[in-house]
Amino acid sequence: MKNVQMNYLLNGGKIKEIRLEERPRELMAIKGKDTLRIEEILSLLIGSGIPNKSALDLSKDILNSIQGDLNKLGRFNQFDFMKFKGIGKAKSAVLVAALELGRRRMVFETTHRIDTILASKDAYNLLRPHLSDLAHEEFWIIHLNRASRLIKLEKFSVGGVAGTSVDLKLLFKSALEQTSSAIILAHNHPSGQLQPSQADKHLTKKIIEAAGLFEIQISDHLIMASDTYFSFADEGIL
Which of 36, 119, 121, 162 could form a disulfide with 40 if both were Cys (CB 3.0 to 4.6 A apart)? Predict the structure, then answer.
């Protein structure tokens, strides 16, 4: 963007004569942030372009690569952004930081808004900021009291692309330390596949059997994938 404007000025043009749609910063000041398109917001974060390609062009390249799917954009890391010519370490760091700031705002909002889990949708909304954009698997636990009020949201284990391990001894140690009356299990599938695998079903069955010894209820097991989820309880297979 800066290069486009500079070339124009060097040729005798005036900044106010550059088309408004090519100046997202000015457009936001005049019409407000809500009027900006996604590519314009990205171009503001990118800041400047390269010869023959403006920041707006770079932002369009990024969006075209993900076909406009912002869920895919949310999973980008610095190396993903640096695959685009014109996006180096500094620009990629700004972009990743902006995505992380948005994610943390979601975490803050859900943590302060959701304190009782009455349905699978409540659990999903609480977990979504933590699990929806991951490229690896994680296993989480929601600890609840007898009134289904949230005691603690816990990241229990971190794995790779294909799975994560769950140590039952440590799981129930944690539940007993929190004096949980019920827990909700959750993990993500980075592949986007929602259906539980045989390993998922077997693990859930083992946890339920062990939970009975401690009089702890397993209320649900969620499988998360970007903007949707699978609930063992809702599907009647818990």
Answer: 36
